[in-house]
User: Fold these one by one.
Assistant:
Number 1:
Amino acid sequence: MVEKFDAIVIGTGQAGPSLAARMTQKGMKTAIIERKLFGGTCVNVGCIPTKTLIASARAAHMARRGMDFGVMIDGLIEVDMKQVKARKDRIVQQSSQGVTNWLKTMKNLTVYEGHGRLESANSVRVNGDLLEAEQIVLNVGGRAIVPDMPGVDEVDYLTNSSIMEVDFLPEHLVIIGGSYIGLEFAQMYRRFGSRVTVVEMGPRLIGREDEDVSAAVKEILENEGIEIRLEAECIALAKHGDQVAVTASCGPGPEEIVGSDVLLAVGRKPNTDDLGLDKAGVETDPRGYVVVDDQLRTNVPGIWAIGDVNGRGAFTHTSYNDYEILAANMFDNDPRRVSDRIPTYSLFIDPPLGRAGMTESQVREPGRKALIGKMMMTSVGRARERSETQGFMKILIDAETKRILGATILGIGGDEIIHSVLDVMYADAPYTVIQRAMHIHPTVTELIPTMLGDLRPIE
């Protein structure tokens, strides 16, 4: 039996439920399919649980620093990992259940729980049922990459998903991968009390960032006792009794790091290998991401791809923005485009890194005339008050148009403060607008105008 719909959404991650709501509000008979966790990565194993764990880790860290602020805490600071996990689970449950209830009570929406696969350009099979619609939206997200490195099949390992079930304190956590996910877990577990070693194949951490950012992040983590192993060109895993041995070099006398647990944090890949894309003729790139145009259309009319699966962003906020773009084009006669958005994201270590627009190295590549301003967080009163003076702020300006090209805020509140710069960038206003603004004292943001008043040419 064939069930006909106006639209089918595959996946309930950040973009899917909101799009389904818009479709049903427009009177469209809609189906949404979820094979595992309602709410997708962010709600269940991504943003919400990791930031919840980070909050617990920060609480432990600040308790240990009590004497720095004249606060005396008697006794040993201990972390109850079962309670930490229970708190995380409660918060995740609230979010996941909220999405589930929203979808299952939404008028004009049919929820299917199972693995949806395309059978043609306008049909999807799930649990033996065949659904047909003229509009199909792929919102299937991604998952952790398990690299094909020697010994990976011989040892027990964790990913960013499976580590969510850990309710004990690893004695020595070895993290393979020195980028955003790996570094957040590194600092988190170090603050919980684990010994932590980060093994990175590249010459520096978070290689997409400028060198001064990478160096500062490395210093922040090493100051907390995290061991960093860079240029590990060949990595192999092996059992070492009831532990795991990580070989981090192919040169003479390979270095062996023995840990109690290993976390693989080397990136993510799209969930497209079992989606039936070939049956519908949907094009993918060499990495498996669905190819979309500037308005998120695939090469097949009537099929769109939103969220992590399209390779046009790897964040919850880019996924939600995909929904906004698609809904604007589909329902509002508002031709929004992916290329209209300014890249922005954060690394949620402590202090956090907030990023918007171009990096300094990107600005230098075209040889354009540009200005740069930089201020160390040691010069920021709010940072000194909080005894959190690590990091710096940096801003890049087009010398001819006076437009802001990009900004980096690595320091206290950086993940929030970056938005004051980002909004001026979206307004396409000259940097003088924010330079002449009166900000509240004492804050971090008040120093952005000061930094903008001390620009110098990039040479």
Number 2:
Amino acid sequence: MDNNFSDNSSTTSERADFDGLWKDAIKRFLPQLIERTLPALYHDVDFSREPVFLSKELRDSIQRPVADEHNSPLFVDELIKIFLKDGRAEWILLHIEVQGSGGEDISFRMMLYCCLIFAHHRKMPIGLAILTKRRPKDEIIGAYKLEQYGSSISYKYNCFEVYALDDDNLLNSDNPFDLIFYATKKTIGLSGKSKEEKKLSYLLKLTRLLASKGWGKEERKDIFNFIVRAVNLKDEALQQKFIQDIHDFQGDDTMAQLTFVEQYFRDKGHSEGLHEGITIGEERGRREANFETARRLRAMGMIDNDIQKATNLSFDEISSL
């Protein structure tokens, strides 16, 4: 399989990385994502009211064997309750799917999930499919239609093709999510040692660009975190080179160092070989990350024994989730 963000790792690991990467970005930058992908909706949303993320409700509405579709490692789904400001409707449901390579017909899946969400919530969701990689040529995207003996069903949804976006427009944009889209677009298919130098080049370029943006420090840290995790630089010598570069760089190097060490190397388990003076975060942070990973793996159906091996949590701790 041609993967976006990882090399030849296990399917479970790929899925956890892709899922966590995008869910974190959606939750952190939801207004910016809506502004970029659904501008008409953006003007109607009351962002003074916190959106409600309904991941559990979405899982409840998608029962097996439909839930098996989530086994695609490059697939993310999110259901969000969003409040409007004009009084036409107090709130709406936004169904977001992020799809890389693989998976079955996305239009069929979007229609099916729409039906299941409607049956569960009695409210039709607004559908948004974010495609990070081209779909098969014979697959129709953006709509699904089925007719049979006088009965028919037709469903249209919003489709945002990341791979078709213009590089210069993304780099010059004032919307933080455009740098997320750029990192996603440029790292598609990058895997293996021969591509590590290119990964480093993208990291250096985006680090400098991010430091030049007039966004808040926390905002830039979170974008940087996505970029580093998405690029997924694996070569340890190049990791050292990148760390040294951000130390020498005269921009906001504190932001880069903190995020790179506390998030990327800690989450990926690449703390070995880091030069002295680089901390990988407190033990509490590591345990919290392990608990979050355990929750996600359990939600995906992994047995407790395998979760224990992946997280080093005790069976009592896993059972308490």
Number 3:
Amino acid sequence: MRLALTAGTRDGEHVPDPSALLDAFGRHLALQRGLSEHTVRGYLSDVRSLLDTLREDDGAVDLARLDLTALRAWLAGQAREGRSRSTLARRAAAARTFCSWAVRQGHLAEDVGARLQSPRADKRVPQVLAVDEATVLLDLTAQVADDGDPLHLRDWAVLEMLYATGVRVAELVGMDLAAVDRRERTVRVLGKGGTERVVPFGVPADRALAEWLQRGRPELVTPTSPPALFLGARGGRLGVRAVRERVHGLTALAGVRDMSPHGLRHSAATHLLAGGSDLRTVQEVLGHASLATTQRYTHVTPERLRAAYTQAHPRA
């Protein structure tokens, strides 16, 4: 449904309250574009920030002021606040998507975001754990779980699965019990855009999962609990923020470099390539739409590439 906008003093449209506009945009992103809940939240936050720069004294948003100059000024302000290049690239993408949608809905006369350029996302791979650090972290997590506390058993299984599968944290907390096949040691993952993939995991992760499912989860489940693989302390589905907090806390306790769940994903990809996996396999495991995204990991293991070159090239 078209949002009714009131005419302002300029030749354009004023939005007294942009909430309805943002709600409609969010529904478009989720239902028509098929973006994940996490991505939708990020895009809405970005566009809300953009619209705030267009507010008049009366608090209304003046869409007539939204032009290429305004978009560039907004991005420049984000850069001055110290946002990373990858964040700026995402915010520019959100602005372009919003402008394109707003034109189709009749809220903008022209697609002012079509010519908006943004810094290239930082292609460097974030800091990752060394293999021995990953071992120390997971051994420590298993030792903490020896007390049988259901939350500690859950944390052990969570970290093992993050590192074993390389899944995104949102994908992990979105898993249901039916997604896991322990006989085959695989898990069905619902990724970005509703795409589905099957990812294997190893014996250590399976052992942690078994302990969680047999001893930990039954202690937390309630009559209203969802069929989620991982539960929070009150029996609801485990949240992304809680996983981040536990990963940061356990890496500190283990005395290894600080990691986020995404850092464990990067570590898994790096160690797969270092161990001899080909790029196509790692692409499938990580759920990357483009092989170019996976290729950024190759520079992490130059010794492996040099060895492969020496072995394969006739004039090496």
Number 4:
Amino acid sequence: MTISVQFFGAAGEVTGSCHLVTVGDQRILLDCGLIQGGRKDEARNRDPFPFNPETIDAVVLSHAHIDHSGRLPLLVKSGFRNTIYTHRASRDLCRVMLKDAGFLSEKDAEWENRKRERKGLPPIEPLFTVEDAKIALSHFKGLVYADKQQILPGVSLRLSDAGHILGSSIVELWLDEGAKTRNLVFSGDLGRSGMPVLEDPAVIREADRVIMESTYGDRLHRSWEDTEEEIHQVLNNAMDGKGNILVPAFAVGRTQEILYLFAKYYEEWGLARWHIFLDSPMAIEATRVFTENADLFDAETAELWKQNGESPLLPDLHISRTAEESMAINKIRRGAIIIAGSGMCTGGRIKHHLKHNIWRKECQLLITGFQARGTPGRALVDGAQHIRLWGEEIRVAARVHTIGGLSAHADQNGLKNWYANFQGRPPVTLVHGEERSITSLSKHLYQQLSAPVHIAQAGERLEF
């Protein structure tokens, strides 16, 4: 019986995680994520799957982020009829995120079709709809950590905490190959030790093959202490500058970490001087899911969250659910901290706040997460002097702060140390990284740990 893994996404790039495991005549898909980035990158999401969705026997989803889960509605729409296994918290977050993605897809198609109609072009269909997302969600089965169970004949699964976002999982698959059983470990996205809110990534010691992410394989993060002090200084300086602070934040994970830090240092950072706006319906819903899964928090966060519910220790937190509430924020010229999606500034309400603030020299922009190539967020980090919003060229006068130490991904040392726990140095295949990071991590794993390293290529098939 042949066991193989084929890499159809996040191979040589960060987004679009999708890997196909074949065991005899059974096929298990690890993740099924959206490709994110520029228009050309995102257009690839409309390409047919490079496999027949009807032949997939099961999907195992590592976590809820859209670059890992976002094509699941398309998979179901294309004929997948079986079960999607994931942690129960990831299932709950996907109920929020996939519906939101479907809504945005419908709106994008509506906007595009208005332009196409004026040009005499045929209309396009949404990538997927809210209804498509609901149908896909009916296939989800929520699991808990550390519970090993059979999901197919000769295939067993166990999820362990990856420490990246709520419900994020390291995936272990036991695959029967005749008289032998092979153990495949997929890291998903690994978090950082000591990260706020969540537990540290679980230690896994046995594997016949490892598939590991490499998002930050070429760098070391700043310490938590230095990162927190950096945020403190930005807040102090911004208050003197008489402007607003914009915080593009991923709705799941980063938003909750920022709220936690603001709660922890509310007095020390002088946050009573600010009006804090959480301007993202999806982030508001995700925060509710976090609250309902507080048993997954580390001890300090669990206690803080338990005491204060949805808005921990933030009496000046304003929840902006409606479009009207969001538009009202744009009238505020100073003293506002605006946390809004999307995290890479590709859509959502942050684009409106950029339009009203980014040209003002007294504005401060806090970049708090990874910015993929081709996104407006990446352009701002790289020093763009102008950005284009709804066809309008807007000058960038705001001060841009890249708070790299807030990353929810393990850095080079974190990835290396996680792999070092495996007994016998199993073969490791690197995915989910741009060329520079993945090449650097490969070199360090080989030189320092004598690891048999392979860099996944798109479409490549590896046999055990």
